[in-house]
Amino acid sequence: MPMKVGVARESAAGERRVALVPEALGKLTAAGLEILVEAGAGAGAAIPDQAFTDAGAKVVSTDELYAASDVILRVQKPVGPEVAKLRSGQAVIGLLSPLLDPTLMQALATAGVTAVSLDAIPRTLSRAQTMDALSSQANVGGYKAVLIAANTYGRYFPLLTTAAGTAKPANVLILGIGVAGLQAIGTARRLGAVVAAYDVRPETAEQAESLGAKFVKLKTSIDATGAGGYARELTAEERSSQQAELDEVIANQDVIITTAQVPGRKPPVLVTADAVRGMRSGSVIVDMAASALGGNCELSKSGQTVTTDNGVTIVAPENLPASLPTSASQFYAKNISELLKSMVKDGSLHLDFEEEVTRATVITHGGAVVSEPVKKLLAPAGGNA
Ligand code: NAD
Questions:
Q1: Do 180 and 145 touch, CB atoms closer than 8 A?
Q2: Where are the alpha helices (DSSP H) in 252-371?
Q3: Measured between alpha carbons, how far is 351 from 66 in angstroms, rounded to an integer?
């Protein structure tokens, strides 16, 4: 019997993405897999059930999906009733955030469910680039952040000369030049803005400049390149010298998009309340790093748009990729299909723990949590487990 792969309907509030799109089905069926799709799974991304049927999938009820699937593909981690429906021997693959929710991983392990998380893919491994959902979704986010900024800003982005007068181009500053920041630079440039960008990893200067942004070089030179291509947290001294210089740059901007993250830490504050007070009325900040943990702007409120007394609007969107659901799903589908295919041998799931991607992404298997970082989080403080 061919292995059955189920595509779940997402249930998180505001989530409009779906884990597979019809165009991605061909390669999976060619690998000997049968695809089941929960009715309505693509609705948020404007993909009707019929499109999945036409591409060779079987559309099924929620109960049938959970009962019949050997592997369930999803975008976000399963919630309460979905967790209860998963059964021993079944696998679930998605952006499961195992480090943020180790308790769920323990529950899946206890239930005998194999959990595979796309956010644990080793990002510097070139062979895994096609599976890198963090990058594909950050890319969507960087693009959409600029569109939101342009939509919120009360003036033009490009230089415009017309019979009715001339519009000055907007000055846009991108803070954090990772995947999202690079896409934000490209998008803001395409809209005609004058773009500057800043990061604590010096190698990003050339990347920003190649996309047409001016790299902001502070007098105090900081190299905070950390492990795996990420940044490390700044020391208190580095932070204060960075802040003083950044405040001056910030005061001259019309639009700021912030994307700075440090793995496993709260996002660094790069735009303080004081810096916002120094900005002109009508300026816009889009804080892509904002979450319940805080953001890159001291005044951001996750999921909300606030306007300060001095007329600066601060937007802190919660799930930007879900606001471009069809494209985000198309790229995500490629990522998850590639990961799944790498784990299928002779039409069934075959986990080879000698293989780097499998070792990194399989979080629970055989009734236990197998991921070392998650095991560490679950170990009682001071214990050796
Ligand atoms: P991220 O989301 O962790 O952070 C975004 C950016 O914020 C980073 O560029 C980081 O340097 C910057 N940042 C952190 N603290 C800062 C501060 N105090 N001030 C200013 N900027 C700050 O990063 P990401 O987009 O996930 O990318 C992380 C790295 O992974 C990058 O080096 C990227 O090129 C790399 N990457 C590599 C591959 C690959 O080789 N296959 C694929 C994807 C990403």
A1: yes
A2: 273-277, 325-342, 356-361
A3: 21
Ligand 1, atom 39: nearest CA belongs to which residue? 124
Give CA–CA dist 133/136, Å, rounded. 5
Active site annotation includes 76: no
Name the helix (H) or strand (E) containing 160. strand 160-162
Q: Which of 17, 76, 132, 207 is catalytic?
A: 132
Query: Ligand 1: which of 119, 129, 200 to mutate, most ligand atoms within 8 Å of CB?
Result: 200
Task: Locate 337 and state its tokens.
Answer: 């299909």
User: How many angstroms does the Cα of residue 189 sit away from the middle of ligand 1?
Assistant: 20
Q: Looking at ligand 1, which atom is closest to the CA of residue 129?
A: 41
DSSP three-state, residue 102:
helix
Do 181 and 142 contact (CB within 8 A), yes or no?
yes
> Would you call 129 a catalytic residue per the annotation?
yes
pTM for the predicted model, two decimal places: 0.95
In a 13 Å sphere around the CA of 370, the CA atoms on its Cβ side amount to 20
Give strand pairing partners of 188. Answer: none
Q: Is 49 a catalytic residue?
A: no
> For residue 299, which of 311, 288, 287, 317 has the smallest C-alpha distance?
287
Q: What is the pLDDT along the chain (385 residues), one digit of tens a residue?
A: 889 999 999 999 999 999 999 999 999 999 999 999 999 999 999 999 999 999 999 999 999 999 999 999 999 999 989 999 999 999 999 999 999 999 999 999 999 999 999 999 998 899 999 999 999 999 999 999 999 999 999 999 999 999 999 999 999 999 999 999 999 999 999 999 999 999 999 999 999 999 999 999 988 778 898 887 788 888 888 888 888 899 999 999 999 999 998 877 889 999 999 999 999 999 999 999 999 889 999 999 999 999 999 999 999 999 999 999 999 999 999 999 999 999 999 888 999 999 999 999 999 999 999 999 999 999 876 544 4
Query: Catalytic site residue 132?
Result: yes
